[in-house]
Design brief:
The chain has about 130 residues and is α/β, with parallel strands linked by helices. It has 2 domains: about 45 residues, no CATH class; about 60 residues, no CATH class. The protein has 5 helices and 5 strands, in the order ββαβββαααα. It binds flavin-adenine dinucleotide (FAD). The site of flavin-adenine dinucleotide has 29 residues, from strand 2, helix 1, helix 4 and helix 5.
C-alpha cells in the first residue's frame, strides 16, 4: 500500500538516528502491506532502510553460524545445502528448511522478508 505520510527514507544502521515516527525498514513485507508496524496505527514519517547495510546474510565459522538481521528467508533456506556448511556435522541444520517451509509464504515474502523482521514482528506462526 502507499505510505503517504513518509517524508524521507534514510539509509542507516545507527540506532542513535531513530526518533519518534520512524520505523526500521527491512524487507518491507509488513510495512508495505499494513502501512505501519504490527500493533501500531501511528503514522510513520521516516523509514530507516537497513537494506543498504551490506551485511553478509550468513557467516559460517568454526564457532557456528551468524545470520544478519537482513538475511532473507530464501537465503536461509539455501544454507543447509550450500558449500558454506558442507562437511559440518551440525544437526540443527536439519531444522532450517522445515522452519522456512512453515511460513505460509508468497514469492514476495519468501524472497524479501528477513530474519530480523520476522523476529521483530513476532507473529504467532513465526517459524
Ligand atoms: C502475505 C503475508 C504473509 C505472511 N506470512 C507469514 C508467516 O507465515 N509467518 C510469519 O511468521 N510471518 C508472516 N508474515 C509476516 C512477515 O512477512 C514476516 O514477519 C517477515 O519476516 C517480516 O520481515 P520484513 O523484513 O519484511 O519486515 P519489515 O516489513 O521490513 O518490518 C516489519 C517490522 O519489523 C521492524 N524491523 C524489521 N527489521 C528490524 C530490525 N533489524 N531491527 C528492528 N526492527 C526491525 C520494522 O520496523 C517493522 O515494524 C507474512 C506477511 C505477509 C504480508
Amino acid at each position: 500500500m502507499d505510505m503517504n505520510t513518509i517524508e524521507s527514507v534514510v539509509a542507516t544502521t545507527d540506532p542513535g538516528q531513530w526518533r519518534e515516527g520512524d520505523a526500521w525498514l527491512a524487507g518491507g513485507t509488513v510495512l508495505f502491506s499494513y502501512g505501519s508496524p504490527v500493533g501500531s496505527e501511528e503514522p510513520l514519517k521516516r523509514l530507516l532502510d537497513l537494506g543498504q547495510a551490506g551485511w553478509p546474510a550468513v557467516t559460517v565459522g568454526d564457532a557456528g553460524i551468524e545470520l544478519a538481521a537482513t538475511c532473507t528467508v530464501a537465503e536461509l533456506y539455501a544454507l543447509p545445502v550450500s558449500d558454506a556448511v558442507a562437511g559440518r556435522n551440525w544437526p540443527g541444520l536439519d531444522l532450517f528448511r522445515p522452519c522456512c517451509d512453515s511460513f505460509v509464504a508468497s514469492f514476495k515474502v519468501w524472497n524479501m522478508s528477513t530474519v530480523g523482521g520476522n523476529v521483530c514482528t513476532a507473529l504467532p506462526p513465526g517459524p
